[in-house]
Amino acid sequence: MEKYKIVCVTPAGRRRYMQYLVPQILSSKIVDRYDIWVNTKDPKDLSFLKKLKKINEKVRLIEQPDGKVVGNRSINAFFKQAMDEDTIYIRLDDDIIWIEPEFFDKIVKFRIDNPQYFLISPLVINNALCTFILQTEKKFRYPEYIKATCFDQIGWKDGEFAHQLHLWFISKVKNGSYTELYCGPKQIGLNRFSINSICWYGKTFKEFDGIVLDDEEEYVSVVKPTELGKVSCFYCDAIIAHFAFYTQRDHLDRTNVLEDYSRIVKLIYGTNDEYKKLSSDIQKILIEVENENHISKNNRKRINSRINAFKILIPIVRLKSVDEIKKRIFNNKEKKRII
Q1: What parts of the chain have a pLDDT lower than 70?
Q2: What is the value of pTM for the model shown?
Q3: I need a labelling partner for 326 at 20 to 30 A (CA). Which of 49, 61, 141, 298 fits?
């Protein structure tokens, strides 16, 4: 069997999520390197990433190849740095917050056993197409149909549904029944899908020089495989959990979902000494970063002068209409549940 290096990549990076993700990646013995695609301008996030590099030799920081950082629109250029012919790459977005302990072994084995697929994605909890698969496979019941589209109004947009989905999955991790969700390979047609996690051969991307145009998700999930005459595949016997799309984040940030996942990650990885050390080191880094002052003296003077100029704060109260109040009461009574 041909030997491959295993390299994880993450477009990064929001430290509030990566504190959960990074120890799960770096504690895996199968991962040879962790390439962090630096795609942020936030000073504290940048400081966090630089400190990560110092605590583990697997970490490599990759700067944006075109020298510009504009959110999702600048991720496409990083693929030029992920096309080594002897390497299998596994992308995990920075808000992946739970990884099945056997994930890396299983996804790599499936990748090697199935070279015909362009991309492989695991079963991602809180990914609209994966939610469609779970509902179609009757792994849960819900009164509305989740469509096979990455922008489904429930599976992608509804924050309350995402909250329920996470709580449902967390309960399965706690009682050890999450393996009941396994449902094998599911080939993907000409459907765009959210690439929260994908696995590819470096040699495949080398064939087109790693050039990914415009919207990276559209390009790698639909355009390029169509051009090459290939299909991709969900491998639903390997599971990870994704926190939120931007459409869901405001709602989920008002819940305890992150804290709940933090507890179950510790429960699952608690006997792994490498994980425990990494987790402890990262918490120390977070404290250091929060105590750092990233505001220049000139900016601090401007901020202080503005604060002093507006010491009296007048609260703004938005009055709700009768229709809004009725709608809220109705929604609370008729809230749909995942079973």
Answers
A1: 1, 295-335
A2: 0.88
A3: 141
